Amino acid sequence: MSDTMARVGHLQGGRYHLNKTLGQGGFGVTYLAQDRLLERLVVIKELFPQGSVRQGDSIRTPPGMSREHFEGMMGRFVAEARALARFNSPYVVRVQDVFQENGTAFIVMDHLQGRTLMERLRTQGALTPDEAFRMARQLAEALAVIHDAGLLHRDIKPDNVFLTDTDTPVLIDFGAAREYAGGQSAEMSVVLTHGFAPIEQYANTGNFGPYTDLYALAATLLFAITAKLPPVSVARLHEDVPLPPMALTYAPGLRTAITQALAIRPADRPGSAQAFLDLLQRGRDDLGALTFAQAIHTAQQGRLLPVERQRLWAQALLAVYARREGKLPRIEHVDELQYALNCALEVLPLFHDGLELVFGSMEAAAPSLAEDLAAFMDTMRRSPDGLGEFLGAVGAAAALAPQADLPAPGQVWRAPESTASAPLPALSAKFAGFRQIDLRADAVVQVGFAGPVQVAWSLSADGDLRAVHSVSGEPLAQVAGVRAAAATASGLWLARDGLVQRHAFNGTPLGPPVNFPDRPVSAAAHGRSVAVAGRQGLILLCTLTEGEPAVQTLSLSALTRREDPPLDLAFSSDGRLLLVRDTQAVTVLRTQTMKVLRTFTLAGEAVTAVALSADGQRACTAHGRRLLVWDVPTGRELASFQAPAPVTHLFYNPNGRLLGALGGGLYLLDAQSGHAIAHHAPPGGRGTATSSNADGRSIALGSLHQFSLLQLAPTEFRAVPDLSPPPARPEPVPPAVSREVPAPPPSISTGIPAGFLSGLPSTGMPSRTAPPTPPPPRWPSPPSGLTGRSTAPGVAPYRECRLPPQPTSDVLGRTTAELTGLLSLVVLAEGPVHRQEAFRRVIAAHGLGKVGPRLAASLDRALGAAEAAGQVRLRGEFLWPPDLDTPPVRDRSALATRTLDLVCDEEVQAAGRLVEHLPVHERPHAVARVLGFARLTEMSRERIFRLLQQEHA
């Protein structure tokens, strides 16, 4: 036990036993201690000012410090500890206890396992772009919690940021924390670390505020990115000392937030942690433009051919434009490709940092990019047969979510308060009209539509169910005493106390009722199945069959180990998943096994609503105003953003691009960015329930005593402003389009230096007013025998070997030499190919569709003969050409049987090297996308992890 350790060795009557001293600062001593009551390790901080001396069980203050001053310090120490104990943030160290003993005060905190940020930087170097972005967001959220409590940390630096074993940053050491009053001058002791302290901390009086901590946070992040100590703020005031430059690979919003927060004058910095977060997120919404540019830059360093670079730039522009619009441009002819590229020039502002990265400067970018696009169009006009392959590559690239290309787990997207401030909204929608139905009943608690039929229904709090025609509003049925309801194309499922029964749309019962020993609170239906949740936690799953209905009743608490009762149910569009919401979490169940697949929750915050996308891949949970988007197969958080108001109900439209959020009024949000794009105020000012029909064109909205049917206008195609200079020659006739194109919106601030677009080719954007004239019917002919597509630099197109049809379907009647020749053709054309896939190609050429035992034995004999003759090498389950050692990485999106097991280990490892810059948990999904597979099973994911850990032979 050191001289500074409390001599008693234990505190609070022996509850805390002091094990060792962890450190000593200017205000206190930190110990590692054992909590004997709870049997766990804790950290205890003692108020022990530097210069103090122990006298028995008490302490003597240092010379010059009066006892009254020390008593005041101890009072502030205890008050600030109590304030910290109220924080509920995973990024702030948690205070468990505070007490006074031995003439001083002690704070008991969690014992964290891990290391400080400084230790991590010393051993592993600078943070990656994704690590830096995630840490900036998490620490800014921690400061938001601290500042809302009226405290300033005042000593943020790499030594005071602790990284847990899961790499979660936690702010520690609040010994210098002080209260502050916004806009008022205050007196504080001078506590600072050179390079991380703003200029106002060098004086003991001044206006301190959130911007004080934000300067230190930005300096910490700059140090973690550049590995260079930021210049002292006082030196920056008197001399023009530049900040260490940040690489362009870091997100634009991160660089902007750090630069602004490091302003010398406090008035030039973000005024709050939320303002810092807003700067952080706005630069992130580039729809993957920086990622595409980084890929081109990387490929260019590997001596990328000019024709390949030109193709990649065109692909990147169209992919980002398609992501912003939410759909691929309609291109069936080379002339329409020219038109689409003209439209795609609108997204050039998003490529600002990428253009600087690839070309070195914006001045060099203009002529080079213009030359590349012009050369690409010349190539496509000479070889129109390649249009299909190119469009396939654009579609595959655009289908990738932006955060998958530039991963940032837990990234936050902030929705603007009004649609006017939304930068470049991806969608434009509005309500075309609505029909209002007076119910003369209690508040509506549920609304919905009946599958593809034109039936809408509402359920009020007093149990009155009404069904109406969703177009005319004509009443169809009225049933009383209903607790919960759901509907499909086959009828209405109504749940009363103790029973569940299916009804026709006119209210007539269909079939016998099913007993349900609970009081229903929610119901969901899909096809011929219905799920009903009860107040006591029971869930009924009933499926109609030819005989008696199949009924299964289970307890939610037995599945989830939680006692919270279920509140909402929702099926996926294919009926394979069932979402169950309770007050604290959303549980995803497999309907066939009723086993828990995934649980989504946000620690410390209740779940107020949930929605599942039609494809079952995305789930959105509401926690008050905060919305989180989850990837259902992996359980990974994809995005987070703020809704304009606290959300009580959610729904996805069928294509997953719109998210309906009911928070007082009904808001339509862009499901990718969180931008609010439409709003409807319900009668009475407060909505109580909402839902969308199967095609997403009608929305049901319940309110007090009323039920509204809203019609959503078609999502508008936003015309592109003509940013290029006037063409020197007559404009070409625009290609035929099948939709009405509205007038161009007002000019948009591009953020590109003046004169940049003047270097682009005058591609002849078609006039918006001239009537479209169909182009001549020049359809690209499909390639014969071989098909393929390319999705990424360094990835070769997949070339499927289609054997010519054989004259006979009798495979067993063919000689071994004939079968050997067919297998050799497949292997030579494919490269490494799985044994079963090669067999399937051979029998497919004979008009057969299944490899039976006798066929497999015959083909095995032919394979043995081919291997003995040196025509094929057998490596595990894969057949290799005899002269091939390293297979090319290929996009297999054209493969009919999309199974990752059909790709050999060496190719998986090679694909892994293409994405080795990504975080470890992202690599299996990135490898699958490089190889052309959209979904990933758990078995395939484990296989990829295992292969990426092996050394490549």
* Overall number of domains: 5
| CATH architectural designation of the largest domain | 7 Propeller
Instruction: Give the averaged pLDDT, no decimals.
Output: 77
pLDDT < 50 runs, ≥5 residues: 400-428, 715-791
CATH fold annotation of the largest domain: Methylamine Dehydrogenase, Chain H
Structural class: alpha+beta
Work out the helicity level.
25-40%
Largest sheet geometry: 6 strands, antiparallel
Q: Quick one: how many beta strands?
A: 48
Helical stretch count? Answer: 21
- The neighbouring-strand order within the major sheet is 1-2-3-4-8-7
Shape: globular
Q: Determine and state the CATH class of the largest domain.
A: Mainly Beta
Span between termini: 54 Å
CA gyration radius, whole angstroms: 33 Å
Strand content: 25-35%
Q: CATH homologous superfamily of the largest domain?
A: YVTN repeat-like/Quinoprotein amine dehydrogenase
Description:
The chain is 27% helix and 25% strand. The protein has 953 residues and is α+β, with helices and mostly antiparallel strands. The protein folds into five domains: 10-110, Phosphorylase Kinase, domain 1 (2-Layer Sandwich); 114-282, Orthogonal Bundle (Transferase(Phosphotransferase), domain 1); 289-409 and 718-727 and 734-759, no CATH class; 430-712, YVTN repeat-like/Quinoprotein amine dehydrogenase (Methylamine Dehydrogenase, Chain H); 796-948, no CATH class. The strands form 14 sheets. It has a six-stranded antiparallel sheet, covered by helices on one side. Strand 42 and strand 43 form a beta hairpin. It is globular and about 105 Å long. The two termini are 54 Å apart.
